[in-house]
Amino acid sequence: MMFYLFWMHFYQLLTALCLFWADFIPAFGYTDNIQHFWGNWSFGFKCFFGGAGCDSKCGVRGTMFIVMYAMGYVGTVNLARFSEGATFVAIVNAAVTPLGFLFWTMFRESPFGFHPAVDITTWFSIGGLVPMVPAIFLYTMLELHERLEECIASDTPEHPAVTPLL
Fold first, then answer.
1. What is the pLDDT of residue 156?
2. Would you list the domain boundaries of the chain?
3. I need a labelling partner for 165 at 20 to 30 A (CA). Which of 20, 33, 118, 158 fits?
4. Could you tell me the pTM of the whole model?
5. Helix runs in 19-119, H state only
6. What are the C-alpha distances in Å from 28 to residues 24, 42, 52?
7. 23, 32 in Cβ contact below 8 A?
8. Residue (of 81, 114, 122) closest to 98 by Cα position
9. Which residues touch 102 (CB under 8 Å, ≥6 apart)?
C-alpha cells in the first residue's frame, strides 16, 4: 500500500511540474513571464514560513495539515494491514465525514475556540452516527469472534490455539 501511495503522489508531483506552464495562459493563469512566475512562487513559499509580511498562521496550519494528512495515510495503511482489510477501512472512513462535521460544529475556526453552533444539519450528522458507531463496534466484535472460532478449530499440537487479549 505504501508503494502505491508513493507512486501516486510522485506522479501528482510530476503532473504539477509538467503543467506549471498553464499559469502563463492569458485569462487563466496569474503570470505573464517567468520572472513574474518565480516572484509569485517565491512569495508563496516565503509567506508559508511567515516571511514576506505574512502571518505565521499559514505555515502552522499548513504544516499541521501536511502532518495530519500523512498520519491519515499511515493510519489507513496500518488499519488495512492489521485489521480485516479494505472493508473495515471503508467502514471507518464512512464515519469520518459526520465526525468532522460535528467537530466544526463545536469549534469555530478563527479565532480557534469552543463555540457550539447547532442547527438542523447537526442533527442529520448525529442521526448518521447513531447507526454507524454501533455497527462498527458490532462488526469488530464479530470479526474477533470469527478469529477466535478459527483458532479453536485449528487447535492441533503443531498449531496451538492463540487466545485473544479481549
1. 60
2. 47-82, 85-151
3. 158
4. 0.59
5. 34-48, 57-82, 86-106
6. 8, 20, 25
7. no
8. 122
9. 122, 125, 126, 129
